[in-house]
């Protein structure tokens, strides 16, 4: 179904939104595996987007004086990787994790409903597919959305390897080419400083020559994976793209 773009907003607020940001409208909200939610946003045709990029979504109205007076402006933006985007229909799809801490992003994902307007920055980020002999993906649940978009974009003749850590098998997202990935169960263990993921990458039977690695997730874990690839496998650092999404006790890493 083709969705018409949101009509231009009126007044000073509307002109500001249309000049600086993208406006769309929520079409669908549904449960995804684990603590994830699919959220489809329509009315945004013609976006320039590369698989792996993210948007910064406004979970509160930054044009409202009340937002600034209340001090909520610092929590106004939340970064979400794009699961998929159809430029023809103008529908952008997110897969948002419902974090247990119930911060502004989690509260938005829990309460947003079809028909509501959303405002976000244009897609951005350099964590995208690069030409390489093969692609290697390593990360946990927070990286799965990004990996899904990138795997979908990789050509069928482009070899892909990967290790994806999950708490339980039923929480797996339906990643493209899932059969080519190694899935490792974490159980109740923490995803922070995860030796489970590092060991899973260490066990991968990779070609002798380096490819391009996309390593995303908890900050200390992704650094450990990069250290393995560079020190133990002899990969050039430029061949290992790292995207730290989170780490315990630290906010706003992206």
From TrEMBL:
Residues 19-130 form the FAD-binding FR-type domain. SUPFAM superfamilies: Riboflavin synthase domain-like. It holds the Pfam family SIP. It comes from the Bacteria. Signal peptide: none annotated. CDD domains: siderophore_interacting. PANTHER family: FERRIC REDUCTASE, NADPH-DEPENDENT (PTHR30157), NADPH-DEPENDENT FERRIC-CHELATE REDUCTASE (PTHR30157:SF0). This is FAD-binding FR-type domain-containing protein.
